[in-house]
Every structure is written in C-alpha cells, then in structure tokens.
Amino acid sequence: MLLRSLLLLLVLVGAAPLCRADDGYRLWLKYDLIGDAGQRTQYRAATQFIASTTNDVVVKTAVAELQRGLQGLLGQPIPVVAKAPAGTKRGILLSVDPSANVSGSSTSKDGYRIAAEGKNLVVTGKSGSGVLYGVFALLRQLQTGQSISALSLSSSPRIQYRLLNHWDNPNGTVERGYAGSSIWKWYELPQQLDPRYTDYARANASIGVNGVAINNVNASARYLTAEYIQKVKALAGVMRPYGIRVYLSVFWAAPKVIGGLKTSDPLDAQVKQWWAAKADEIYKEIPNFGGFLVKANSEGEPGPQDYGRNHADGANMLATALGTHDGIVMWRAFVYKAGSSDRFKQAYEEFKPLDGQFSPKVLVQVKNGPIDFQAREPFHPLFGAMPKTPLVLEVQITQEYLGFASHLVYLAPLFKECLDADTQTKGPGSTVAKVVDGSLDQHRISGIAGVANIGSDRNWTGHPMGQANWYAFGRLAWDYNLTAAAIATEWTKMTLTREPKAVATIVSMMDKSRDIYVRYTTPMGLHHIMGQNIHYGPEPWLAEAGRPDWTAVYYHKADSAGLGFNRTATGSNALALYSPGVQKQWGDTKTCPLDYLLWFHHVGWKQPLPTGRTLWSELVTRYYTGADSVTWMQQQWASAKAAVDPTLHADITARLAIQRREALWWRDACVLYFQTYAKQPIPAPFTPPTRTLAEVKNLVDLYQLK
Ligand code: BDP
C-alpha cells in the first residue's frame, strides 16, 4: 500500500511540469517546442549555426535571443560561430550594414533585411537595433509557422520614436493602471535589478518599441534628484542592449521644488541654467538618455503659463537645456482650462497659434481624440493643423475608459481608426498616420506613444488579452499599414494557440471586440458618460462635479428634444476646427457617420436615421445588441477551449462573465436614464430591463465604494 502511494506520488511529481499552467509571464515570446515534427525538421535544417562577429552590444542581444528562441522552438542548441563554416551546413548570418537597402523609410537606422544568400539566411540591420528587429522578425516567422526557405523580408519603421509612456509613481502605484503595481522597484534600485526589467526590454524590442518614459506625466520632481538619476541610470543600463532609450516625465516646477530657486519661469536666467545643468548631469550618467516628456498647465500641473509664458516658451527652454545632447522634448497638448465653452476646442486654441514657434528638438504630443481616450473619438483636430510642428500621436493602451482589466477589448482597431483618419488638410489622403510619420509635412523627426498597460501582475497586463494591446501598439508604431486582424493573428499564434480554427475564432472575436464595447457603453458618438473619477461603469446622470466638463450631462446634453452635443455652427462650432471636407461630411446629420453622430449633433429622439430606425430605437438597439454580443464572445471563446491552455482559458472565461454582467449594467443604466428624456418604450424585440433606474444608480455607489 505504502509502495503504491509512493509510486503514485512519483508519477504525479514527474507529470507536474507537463501540466504546468501557463501564467502568461512569457507573453508572446514563449518559444515552446514546435509541435509539427515535419516543420521542426525543416527549420532545423536551415538553422544549424548562428554566425556573428560584431561586438555591438545590441547585436550580442540579437545573437542571444536568436539562440534562445531557436533552442526553445526547435529543441536543440544552436552554436554561435564567428564565420559561416564551409560545407553543407546551413545557418543564419547576422551583419550590420548602415547602407543596406531596406524598404520603407530611408532615414531610419532601425531597418533590416532578411534574405537567402547561397545556402544561408542573412539578417542585415542598418544598425545593431536593426539586426535585433530582424532577428525578432525571423523568430516570428517560426513562431507563426511560416516558411523560412528562400525568405525575403525587408522592413523599416515608419515612425522614429516609438515609446511606451508609463504613468508610474515613485510609491509604486500606477495612475490608471489595472495590472498590479509598478514594475519599477524604486526602493531596490540601483543596487537590485529585477530580472523582470530584462524581460520587459525583450518584449518591447520584439515589437520595435525603442523608448520608454518611465514615470507618470503627473510627475514627481524626485526623478530629477541625484539619487533618482542613479536609479534611472540602472534601468537605462538594462534597456540599452535592447536598443531602448529611457525618457523622463518632468515636473515643471522642479527648479523651485528641488532646485531652491524662487521661480520656474522659463525665461528666467537661473531657471534656464538649472535645467541646462540638470540635462548635463543626466547625460553624464546616461549618455543615451532620450529626453523629456512634459505635462504642463494641464489638470492643475504647473507650467509656463503660471508666469505669463506660453507652451512654446516652456518647450523651447527645455530644448535649449538639452543643448547638443541627442535628446528631444515631447510637450503634451492635453490641456483644457476650466470655464471653456467646449473642452473639445481647448488644445487646438492653445496650440494651433504656436505652430512654427517650437524649436527643432520639440515634438508636440497629441492624444488621438479631442477629449480623453474615449472608446471612440473623432481624430484630434490638431492633426493636420500644425504643419510646422512634428506631432506625436498618444494613444492609451491601458484601458482607463475601456473596462480596465475585466473587459476584453482589442485596441488595434481603435488605434487604426485614428491613424487611417483622413484630415484632408492637404487634399484627400492626408491621413493622421502621414501627419505623425512626418511624411505629409516633411519632418525630420516623428513619434508615437502608448500609455502602458503593464504592471506587476505575473501576466503583466491583468487581462491576459491586454497583452495583445501592448503587442499591437508596437507593431502599428512600426508599420501602421498592418491590419488589426493580421496583428491579432500573429499574436494569437505566438501566445495562445496555433490550431487554425481556434486562431480564426479568437481573431474574429478580438477584431469585433472594440465595436462591441462601444455599442454597449457609448454608441453613436456618446462620450464621457462613465463613472466619476474612477472612469469605470456608467454614470450618465452625473450632473455635478468639480467642473462642468467633468460631468456627463455636459457631454450628452439629453433633453426632451433629443440627445448629443451640437458642435456645428449653430452650437459650439468645434467642427470648424477641421478641414472643409471633414466639416462638410460630419456637419450634416445625413452624411455624418452614425459612429460620430452625437459627437457633433443634437439629434431629435424621433429623427429617422439611415438604418431605418429613429434615434431612440437605434440607441436601444445598439445597447441591446452590444450587450448580447458579449454572449457571442463568450460562446466563441468557449469553442476554442480545447486549443488553449486550461488555466488561461478559465481566466478569460471568468473575465468574459464579468464583462457580460457589466455590459448589462451599462445597457440598463443608459437606456433607463435616457428613457426619462425620450419618454418612449423599449422597442420590440427587446424586453425592458427588469431593474429600475434607482437600482442601477445604486450599483455605481457600490463600485466606487461610496
Ligand atoms: C486622463 C487621466 C488622468 C491623466 C490624464 C493625462 O484620467 O489620470 O493624468 O488623462 O493624460 O485620461 O494627463
């Protein structure tokens, strides 16, 4: 009996590694053994050695990553040699050639080419980083089951500065973070380097991210102290071999707060000198430091306007402080003063007049939409309106307004919608993407930033599918012409499963998820009707807050006549900020896409829409079908069960159940509340909510723990 139990124990212990749950830590870089033996044999034949001679630190990273990836995927060690051996062995050669001819941007140093030369595959980068990106592209081929014989790939990023922005604080909290606390352990730095920093760098390099602003834009001055510069230096040291530069968000009033000066006026000589000395001090410690990100005169943060100066005065002073160091200033345009007639217009009104006044080292960083990372926004009117200034597109990867880490919302369609939007400022085809990559106005520098969704949770992003949003950001920053579905397919194959039917099911669910979220939360252009401060759940009835433009009623303007914000000439006229072609299309309720309708028009409840329904009926239809689509997502996900790791599958199943519950919450809250104005019944075939408005309102209090 004892012997039998012991044997059973041995069997169980022995079997344990096989059924180890996938905790999501390895992201899309799993490098698990490829299951298809035939394919493995083919890959093995072509990858019998890695040849590399350069001492470039980033190329060394590329070699190590290639070795690691091939070892995992093919189950055998790959030797690294200085020179390709003569004979029949086939392998991979890595080389740097600054003049290599690669497709895409001709100025970028990050491009790579992969081509068959004789029996070998050669990965040529225009720099060490180019080699690293090429290696990741090659590994991606294997991870997604593509052929590598006679491979010919050539690619260059369209956008030069591809940054993650962390909104992380010194005390370890993350503003709008839903995946645990900050991954940066400030109290341990610089002595202790969590291995996680390296894995973070690997993940970013694998998708082409080449910069990281490590702290919150609501910045603490602490980061500029000598003590913290040492900590930042330690992180920069981890990032450097991965081609990633570190940037800091800076607190405008730092000269006063930590410098002991009486002012932070950008035109004050001592202030200028303080910043120049600070920049020198940082570059002395971190020679490849990237530069500064600044939120100034926004949401209570100090800034140059406190001294009667403007954003250009502030940004240019910092640019001058950077001197000859190779760094940039990203100055955020997310500003809105209290008391403005329409928050939509604020950033435009403050920044448009400054076009042409910024120094060449300054980029102005503009959110994708004019309000604040809503589930759907029209593109920001500053895109196309500041041709003399390089504009960084800022998108939010963390799901502040998109259901935190409990709702499955794949964001590539949202990012693409903005990138593909046609500003028409220089004729048709003047897309936001072309403004941002600098090609429309011939800018030398270009940038894109994503507010990170990364935290200390073992799986990095809380919701396992949130990883896809991090991944998609990087891939689109590299090439905005990739489709959302193509990116989802890559990610799914690398992360979840390569079983073809399951891949198709999951990709279709991901691809529709953002539209579904919009339908059950803010259909047809409703915006900013979410829970106060927390930004979670519905609160369309919110009428009192610190400022009118922090309420919901300011935005939806529901009354007995209809719904929506009139931003045409008879209203706030924010529409006039767009080019004439856009104005024409969006200015008429007959031609305005339904997705943007209530952004620009106050529409009568009974007004017929192109769908054949009245506004009220269309609104209810979208809320109901949106919530029901979550059930469809649950079914899709359930059907992929056999193809996905069981722990991961169960995790997402549970989160989808939360999503369904909360989609019903949004639906009921919004239809019941708007019904008090529309005064019409819930149209057939939908059945009215079984709870009252008062009951649903109570839920908000529960969530906000009031
Ligand atoms: C809003 C967030 C706030 C940020 C701000 C910003 O609610 O926490 O500080 O944006 O971007 O979305 O500065």
Automatic annotation (TrEMBL):
<dbReference type="Pfam" id="PF07488">
    <property type="entry name" value="Glyco_hydro_67M"/>
</dbReference>
<dbReference type="InterPro" id="IPR037054">
    <property type="entry name" value="A-glucoronidase_C_sf"/>
</dbReference>
<keyword id="KW-0378">Hydrolase</keyword>
<dbReference type="InterPro" id="IPR029018">
    <property type="entry name" value="Hex-like_dom2"/>
</dbReference>
<keyword id="KW-0624">Polysaccharide degradation</keyword>
<comment type="subunit">
    <text>Homodimer.</text>
</comment>
<dbReference type="InterPro" id="IPR011395">
    <property type="entry name" value="Glyco_hydro_67_aGlcAse"/>
</dbReference>
<dbReference type="InterPro" id="IPR017853">
    <property type="entry name" value="GH"/>
</dbReference>
<keyword id="KW-0326">Glycosidase</keyword>
<dbReference type="InterPro" id="IPR005154">
    <property type="entry name" value="Glyco_hydro_67_aGlcAse_N"/>
</dbReference>
<feature type="domain" description="Alpha glucuronidase N-terminal">
    <location>
        <begin position="27"/>
        <end position="138"/>
    </location>
</feature>
<dbReference type="InterPro" id="IPR011099">
    <property type="entry name" value="Glyco_hydro_67_C"/>
</dbReference>
<feature type="domain" description="Glycosyl hydrolase family 67 C-terminal">
    <location>
        <begin position="461"/>
        <end position="684"/>
    </location>
</feature>
<comment type="similarity">
    <text>Belongs to the glycosyl hydrolase 67 family.</text>
</comment>
<protein>
    <recommendedName>
        <fullName>Xylan alpha-1,2-glucuronidase</fullName>
        <ecNumber>3.2.1.131</ecNumber>
    </recommendedName>
</protein>
<feature type="domain" description="Glycosyl hydrolase family 67 catalytic">
    <location>
        <begin position="142"/>
        <end position="460"/>
    </location>
</feature>
<dbReference type="Pfam" id="PF07477">
    <property type="entry name" value="Glyco_hydro_67C"/>
</dbReference>
<dbReference type="InterPro" id="IPR011100">
    <property type="entry name" value="Glyco_hydro_67_cat"/>
</dbReference>
<dbReference type="Pfam" id="PF03648">
    <property type="entry name" value="Glyco_hydro_67N"/>
</dbReference>
<keyword id="KW-0858">Xylan degradation</keyword>
<keyword id="KW-0119">Carbohydrate metabolism</keyword>
